Amino acid sequence: MIDTFGLQTLRPTRSARRALFSSLLVRALLLGVFALAAVLGPIIVPYDHITVRTADRLKPPGSVLVDGSVAWLGTDQVGRDLLPQVLQGARISLLVALATVFLAGLIGLVCGLVAGFYGGVPDTVLMRLADIQLGFPSILLAILFAAVLGPSVGNVVLSLTLARWVTFARVVRATTLTVKEREFVLAARALGASDPHILARHVIPAALGPLLVIAAAEVGLVILAEASLSFLGLGTPPDQPSWGLIIANGRAYLNTAWWISTIPGLVLSLLVIGVGAFGDRVRDYFDPRLTPR
Fold first, then answer.
1. Average pLDDT for residues 14-22, to the nearest whole number?
2. Is residue 79 a contact partner of residue 55, using CB atoms and an 8 Å limit?
3. For the chain, what is the domain count?
4. How far apart are CA 107 and CA 115, in angstroms?
5. Residue 66 domain-assigned?
6. Which of 51, 93, 144, 185 is the most buried (most CB within 10 A)?
7. What confidence score (pLDDT) does residue 1 get?
8. What is the 3-state secondary structure (H, E, C) of the chain?
9. In which domain, by residue range, is 185 found?
10. Does a structural domain hold residue 177?
């Protein structure tokens, strides 16, 4: 079969596509549970970051507190219930991840389109800047930006966006270089189509598939990066606990109160694994060559 860009490819069978879509849907539903907990959890179980309850400090999971409530995940070193902190951390982690991937993808899309479609000086400048940035680990760049900007959710998003846009830009540029030389693009240009029309009608739709695959893979990496920044004290402030900050607060109590660091660490691991599995299925779904026949 001939695909949209004139390449001969083997298309997967309808049953294989249906099975792949079902697998993708199951993983999306599992991630939806995390998203639902992140959205509704802090509303149902409000987080109190001001009140210190010394009588309830370092209580294990399932303990009954002084006020009669049950701390299902235990309490921390100042007596705060760990459950609302974990739920609040889920909201912050997902918010940072989605905002960062959206902004980095948008910047990467614009830069990749400009570099790949027009070439010349814009391509040289943008790609040399990308090459220089790729010479440094992205987490080190994020630490540098976060240290300069200071701890806050907005600054974490900005820091990670500046550190992650390069991957999107290079993928979009590669797709643009391929598509702009296709016969249908040359024919559209010969018929007088403008550059914005060609970009909107042909180039951007072709770049959205690879861009979505990269975005699905980047979400898990951004969640880990945000947790790392918060663990180092460069992420969210103390009144907005993320999983990395909770883990850092429990380091000194690993022998006596293991749950403070262990529980958010397990939740973080499960979410990253789930996002990774979802990203693999997204990649398989948008790349027919990887789909079983």
1. 63
2. yes
3. 1
4. 12
5. yes
6. 93
7. 40
8. CECCCCCECCCCCHHHHHHHHHHHHHHHHHHHHHHHHHHHHHHHCCCCCCCCCHHHCCCCCCEECCCCCEECCCECCCCCEHHHHHHHHHHHHHHHHHHHHHHHHHHHHHHHHHHHHHCHHHHHHHHHHHHHHHCCCHHHHHHHHHHHHCCCHHHHHHHHHHHHHHHHHHHHHHHHHHHCCCHHHHHHHHCCCCHHHHHHHHHHHHHHHHHHHHHHHHHHHHHHHHHHHHHCCCCCCCCCCCHHHHHHHCHHHCCCCCHHHHHHHHHHHHHHHHHHHHHHHHHHHHCHHHCCC
9. 19-54+62-290
10. yes
Residue 202's CATH number: 1.10.3720.10
Q: What is the mean pLDDT of the chain?
A: 85
* pLDDT tens figures, 61-116: 999 999 888 999 999 999 999 999 999 999 999 999 999 999 999 999 999 999 99
Give yes or no for residue 291 having a pLDDT over 50: no
Instruction: Extract the tokens encoding 240.
Output: 């907005």
Helices (H) and strands (E) in the chain, counts: 10, 2
pLDDT band at residue 165 under the 50/70/90 scheme: very high
Q: Residue 27 has which token pair?
A: 């993983």
pTM: 0.85
**Is position 8 within any domain?**
no
> Is residue 281 included in any domain, yes or no?
yes
Give the chain's length.
293
Residue 162 pLDDT: 92
Per-residue CA distances from 15 to 18, 21, 155, 291 (Å): 5, 10, 46, 11
Largest CA distance in the chain: 78
Q: Which of 17-21, 41-45, 119-123 has the lowest mean pLDDT?
A: 17-21
Contact call for residues 219 and 279 (beta carbons, < 8 A): yes
SS3 label, residue 63? strand
Question: What is the separation of C-alpha 218 from the centre of its chain, rounded to a whole number of angstroms?
Answer: 5
3-state secondary structure of 18: helix
